[in-house]
Amino acid sequence: MVFFCKYMHKLVTLAGVSLLLPLTSQAVDLMPVIPKAKGQQCVESTDKMRRNHMEYILHQRNDTLRKGIRTPKYSLKKCIECHNAPDKDNRVAHISSKQDHFCSSCHTYVAVKIDCFECHADKPKKTQYHPTSREGH
Amino acid sequence: MKQDTDMNRRRFLGQTAGVAGLTIVPGVMLYEVQARPADQAASSSVRWGMLIDTRQCDTGCTDCVTACKTENGWGSTETKSSPEQQAQWIRKVKLTDKQTGHVQSLPLMCQHCETPPCVDVCPTGASMKRADGIVLVDKHICIGCRYCMMACPYKARSFIHEPLTDQKPHAPRGVGTVESCTLCVHRIDKDGTPACVEACNAEGHKAMYFGNLNDPDSDISKHLKQHGGEQIRADLGLNTGVRYQGL
Amino acid sequence: MKAIRYLQIEGRSVGYYALLGILGLIVAAGGLAALYMEHNGHYVTGMNNQIVWGIPHVFAVFLIIAASGALNVASISSVFNKKAYKPLALLSAFLSVCLLLGGLTVLVLDLGQPDRLIIAMTLYNFKSIFAWNMILYNGFIAVVAVYIWFMMEKRMNKYSRYAGFTAFFWRLMLTTGTGSIFGFIVARQAYDAAIMAPMFVIMSLSYGLAIFILVMMASYHWSERELGDATVRRMTNLLGVFIAAVLYFTLTYHLTNLYVTENHGVEAFILRDGGLYTQLFWIGTILIGGLLPLFLIYFPATAKNRKMISAACVMVILGGLATLYVIIIGGQAYPLEMFPGKIVESSFFDGGIKAYTPTLAEILLGTGGFALSLIMVALVVKILRVLPDNMADANVDPHY
User: Fold this and answer.
1) How far is C399 from chain B (nearest CA, A)?
2) What one-character-per-residue DSSP string does C259-282 give?
3) Where does residue B228 fall: left (phi above 0), alpha (psi -120 to 50 degrees), or beta otherwise?
4) Which residues of B are less than 8 Å from C119 in CB distance?
5) Is the residue at C306 inside a domain?
6) What is the domain range of residue C224?
7) Domain spanning B36-245, CATH class
8) Is residue A21 part of a domain?
9) Which residues on chain B are in Cβ contact (under 8 Å) with C48?
10) Is A89 helix (H, G, I), strand (E, B) or coil?
């Protein structure tokens, strides 16, 4: 099963690359607009984060909830603090915004549903939602 | 029988931990300051508990409930649910003796049992007890079957009947899962005290104590040893972490 | 005596399509109700933090235990080697699986997070009777599937008896497990009783057989095939015994509770002061689900009348739903005994009797599951060779 998944992953990447190649110039607006994060460097390289972020937070969630280990490195709270950082008016994006919320922008693009934010806060403590960032409202 | 061995082991571990604490820095009481580094798991040498003195608890007072709502973000978040459907992590209960008319008042929440029925019945293991005795719901794997709510003798658990937004970052809660008092686990992990206990003491009511039941020298253990403390539904033998005086 | 021939029903009549159409509509309504509940959350139901299990659970539990009982005919033919039941064993096994699937569908769609079913299937807490039930329910489908295969495949016929044995023990475990969901709840006065497990077994025998008799008579009547009186008579006699056994268990359960002072409160609530629950108990469980069908089955003037027998079976089903309503919802409506001897008041509805008003959505979900079971049976008898073409008395020797 694991082998199969790895294989599939490569296949999908390959297919994705071959599809994108002829489109590079015009297809720019089809790519997700990924909002900039606060700070210089993430906890891992961008490459690693793109591939493995779900593993990191899955592991962390069990450690934190079941054992009380609260190291900040892979904490979802910390992800949100940098990747949905407030602007100068202390406003942030709502998870339903496919443009402005870091997680949504990419997850909408790759069509992978996440339910993290059914329970978790999608914004840092003591920030306000940007009035235009909430879709369907 | 197994339970007894377990308890003895815990007591033993608690004592050794206590002795270790003493010998490191002689003369300094380390037990009350349970400094646990962020990368270290909660340990069974500690058992967190609470003691509620019902004689100090005023019928009209809801400071603990208000503090819990503010801390954990429940109370006004469920706008579509009926009052019967809205979550309550802690509530004030008024008791009137049918025979004598004697009135008591107490806060009621998850009793953090040593052998919690909710953990027994949960099909996926979402309902769980941490090593230090805190009973929690792992909402990542809660399927929302509500069997734990059927099984809890204290009606301590609530189901979320509608999608929520704008939760507190330290207190995740969401639709289709069950939740209850976490003993403010996020505060405890940073050496804090549950919000309810803090509020009760800040107002000078002195009706709530919090501490390590495994440490014989903790405030709560000394109080319990001197004045006793009863369990609600002690007949079930659940060895609750929350005890009451003047019940 | 001719050899038994299994033949599909023709299934081209207006009546058959009308049946599929009606059942299909009920299933569709149930599906929409489930989507509506999942999209909005459970606030659109009457269930709340006091009555946490409602109408969907009444239907789900009813269908699940009826599934076990529907296997009666097959079990009797293989385990007790009664030849008269043999021709109908296939129908019995198929009906059983269909009922279980219908019940499980309702149970799953009522979950707070139905899309996490995979978690329930992969993570098990083995101290939970619920987790055991997942294995028992899935295992039951697998065991009965093998049983069906052995019965339908000539080369495997000789092993069908062993498969029948396995299925028989499995179904007893299944209903024991389902009853134990309630039997193991120490917190509530109405539950926490070992008798729940055997009582659910007996209830399953009665409800399942009632559904089987109805399905059998309807199949033969609508496909204009012959069904002998002796076959029907044998089964209704058995149903009568099961109905009486359910009454006996109900009596024992309440008498035991009545002897224990701490349970006087809950007994007074169910038997005397409970309003709807009291009516459902006396009129639903005792009268409609017990005494009336017993009368219809054993009174000579009605015992041979197919319409009266159908009525008796419908009554057993209605009585069964009423019984489970009283057990599941009545059991929760009565307050938890946390502080004996005290009047308890709080913002969280402690102390009082809890109110429950089901909404349309959850009722449609429940009936949708029932219809799903029946539509599957209707399709099975059309697609597969399940129904013997002639069950006239001369053909099957009902006395063996």
Assistant:
1) 47
2) HSGGGHHHHHIIIII-THHHHIII
3) left
4) 124, 141, 143
5) yes
6) 16-336+348-391
7) alpha beta
8) no
9) 81-82, 84-85, 161
10) coil
Contacts of C242 (CB under 8 A, 6+ apart): C69, C202, C205, C206, C209
Q: Give me the domain span that covers residue A100.
A: 33-129
Answer yes or no: is C8 within a domain. Answer: no
Number of domains in chain A: 1
> pLDDT truncated to tens, each residue of chain C (400 aa)?
567 889 999 889 999 999 999 999 999 999 999 999 999 999 999 999 999 999 999 999 999 999 999 999 999 999 888 888 999 999 999 999 999 999 999 999 999 999 999 999 999 999 999 999 999 999 999 999 999 999 999 999 999 999 999 999 999 999 999 999 999 999 998 998 999 999 999 999 999 999 999 999 999 999 999 999 999 999 999 999 999 999 999 999 999 999 999 999 999 999 999 999 999 999 999 999 999 999 999 999 999 999 999 999 999 999 999 999 999 999 999 999 999 999 999 999 999 999 999 999 999 999 999 999 999 999 999 999 999 998 988 887 655 5
Answer whether residue C4 is part of any domain.
no
Spell out the domain ranges in chain B: 36-245
In this structure, are residues A100 and B179 in contact, taking their beta carbons and an 8 Å threshold? no
B218: which 2 tokens? Answer: 């903790």
A102: which 2 tokens? Answer: 């870091």
CB of C25 within 8 Å of a chain B CB? The answer is no
Of C112, C123, C343, the CB nearest to B98: C343
Asked if A120's CB is within 8 angstroms of B163's CB, the reply is: no
What ipTM is given for this predicted complex?
0.93
Which tokens sit at B8? Answer: 């003895």
Residues of chain A found within 8 Å of residue B128, distances taken between Cβ atoms: 66
Q: Please indicate, yes or no, if residue C7 is contained in any of the structural domains.
A: no
* C345 contacts B123? CB cut-off 8 A: no
| Contact call for B167 and A120, based on CB within 8 A | yes
Residue of B136, B175, B190 lying closest to A118 (CB–CB) = B175
Contact criterion met (CB < 8 Å) for B130 and A61: no
Taking an 8 Å cut-off on Cβ atoms, the answer to whether C348 and B91 are in contact is yes
Chain C residues close to B161, C-beta within 8 Å: 41-43, 45, 48
What digits encode the pLDDT tens for the residues C210-269?
A: 999 999 999 999 999 999 999 999 999 999 999 999 999 999 999 999 999 999 999 999
Pick from B96, B117, B163: CB nearest C187: B117
- Taking a C-beta distance cutoff of 8 angstroms, is the pair C58, C145 a contact? no
Which stretches of chain B are DSSP H helices?
A: 2-24, 63-72, 117-121, 147-151, 185-188, 195-202, 219-227
Cβ distance of A120 and B40 shorter than 8 Å: no
- Is A19 within a domain? no
Which residue among B41, B132, B169 places its CB closest to the CB of A69?
A: B41
What is d(CA C370, CA C372) in angstroms, rounded to the nearest whole number?
A: 5
- What's the total number of domains in chain C? 1
